[in-house]
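User: My notes are a mess, but here's the protein and S-adenosylmethionine's SMILES. Can you give me a structure?
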Amino acid sequence: MSIEQNYDVKFVAALALREKQIQQNYRPIIAVHKWFARRPGTLFRALLLSEFAGKAVEETYYRAHSLEGITIADPFMGGGTPLLEANRIGCNVVGTDINPMAAWVVREEIEGIDLKAYARAAEELLNHLSQEVGYLYKTRCPITGRKDADAKYFLWVKTGHCRKCRREFDLFPGYVLAENARHPAYVLVCPSCGELNEVDDPHRPGVCRCRTPLTAEGPVHRNRCACPHCGHINSSPFHGDGPPSHRLFAIEYYNSDLKDKPGRLFKKPDRDDLARITEAESQWRRLKPSFVPEDAIPEGDESSRLHRWGYQRFRDLFNTRQLLGLETTARLIARVKDLRLRRALATNFSDLLRYQNMLCRYDMMALKSLDVFSIHGFPVGYVQVESNLLGIRNGNALPVGSGGFINIVEKYTKAKRYCTEPFEVAFRGKRKITVPVRGEWIGERNPERPEATERQVDIRCASATDVALRASSLDAVLTDPPYFGMVQYGELMHFCYVWLRKLMGENFPGLEFVTTRHADELTGNETAERGLEHFAEGLAKVYGRMARALKPGAPLVFTYHHNQQDAYLAVGMAILDAGLTCSASLPCPAEMGGSIHIHGTGSSILDTVFVCRQSGTTPRSWLFADAAGLAAIMSDELEDLRAAGMKPTVGDIRCIALGHITRMATWRLKSAWNPKLATQEKFAILRKAMNGIAPADAVMKRLEKMDVPVATVSGSLFDEDETEIFADAVAF
Ligand SMILES: C[S@@+](CC[C@H](N)C(=O)[O-])C[C@H]1O[C@@H](n2cnc3c(N)ncnc32)[C@H](O)[C@@H]1O
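Assistant: No problem, the inputs look usable. Here's the predicted complex:
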């Protein structure tokens, strides 16, 4: 019994799809620290149980499991999703990642912590922080006159200097600060006096109290901006050399006295608000910082954008109040004696950074801060948001707003509590039910159940191309490798790492590397001149090592998607070079449809799960010879995905097709495959095989002609007898 028999596309897709809408509600553990491109935990749980629990996945999914003695490896562990799922059901785990930040995060996720002691330490830190810098995050409520309302978000606009008249001007791409989804009206900034105006229709906004006509359109268009003082058309960069300058133009604040007032509270900064900035600056000048890194931002596919904006050092990405607040926080953390607690707080600090920098943007609809990593890059906008460093609690002690230390502590606490009290989420109709899975836990040992067997957890920061594992020691490899050039892990995590390393010290175990960048990172990267060959050869080495470490017939399972066919050549080559056969290619939603980096790009949210083995069986019905054969398989899968609640796009369907075509190409080529050929020759052979079987476009045309139903399919498909399907299996 195995994945090929027990996995169910519809059942798992429904879980994964829901998880990816709000992943923290399904897998709170991910809140220990940001990692990129985390695949759904539900998917990996389903894969593990399909392989090892011996029954159809629906029957085993919500039960507790204790699979002692099974060892699972993930060579590209990142934030650790597959490893955490394996560890939770009792397996031993071996994980590697080339990025020291990944190893740090996974250790933090798995290692137990005394949550009461953590809560005390976090509260103490917050109290001290509040005493030292809390007053910088207060503001006067213009409605009630209350002087100590909490500033939730400070909104800053970039400013430029006119090349002609030398005067400063604001760089507003638009004057809408808030839309009317979470607030009763639109909020527009007056271009002349800066007053905030509430209007019903942004297309007919009327005039400000100062009599200036309001407008939603800002002066910046396509990197050009007319100077409001002399009319000269300036082009970017507008600020000359060095990092851009900003002007505080609005504050969203919280006043518990007005908790029943609908919508949000906005104000134009008053004299005191501006004085707080000056105060932060003079405090900063008096301070000799010990924990603010001086590291330069290196060139990179993502990071060079920062250079183009004039940012040269990581510290340039923070305003003075943020630097002061972060230095103060770091000093307080450095004083914590208990090493486990210090590490936890330092992890919180590192995660907090993504909200405490001047690359964060304000979501005008949701009215919240979008952290720097809400897309997989370093987006620079004209309007930036600074969150309250401490965070805010309402009368019920619940966090208000996002991006403060309180928010991070709350999420971390939930994450660590989940380690000892894991759960799954089920649906009865539309009703969501949390199902505790008693008996499962995440960690090496369970302090609440000392009798429980200890699990081996082997976390390494190393290139998986070099990792040494004993032959026939693994029961499965479950991984989600980099998807060629989609995410620049090393470049992005460098942003947090320089601070974490400064805080904990460069000799601290796990932080010895100077940077998170590495020439052997298996990602396409133009700046580092890493192309598809580098990726394919590296992936092939890793899969080769994994294949040797797997027990006979044990699976190497990995997820993948890409919108370019060539990116699948690397996958095909790695499978074949490792001497593996792909016995299944299963579609599963793995990204969030509304996610900012996916939205509107036509990218796929679907992964193909490739199941590969040295020997095993595959259902004959999964083999196909041409586009028509593949379209028939896919129309069933698409029905399953729709029944699971997904609406596959053209991009999704193409990715499913490419997954199957890669599987079939490797199936056909395996007997005559020569791993010694040059990479480009292998690519040519694979490309020819893939196109010969079914060009993706031909499959798309076939599917277009077929009447693939859009409505939910009937239940009959899921009543099919699995063993009957497997009566006609092909051995390899
Ligand atoms: C898609 S991510 C994994 C995401 C992860 N499964 C999770 O849940 O967060 C791929 C990972 O591969 C790592 N990686 C890239 N090249 C590597 C190499 N040569 N050896 C080990 N890890 C590598 C990256 O640092 C990244 O963390």
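Residues 596-601, 709-727 have pLDDT under 50 and may be disordered.
User: Great, I'll file this with my notes.
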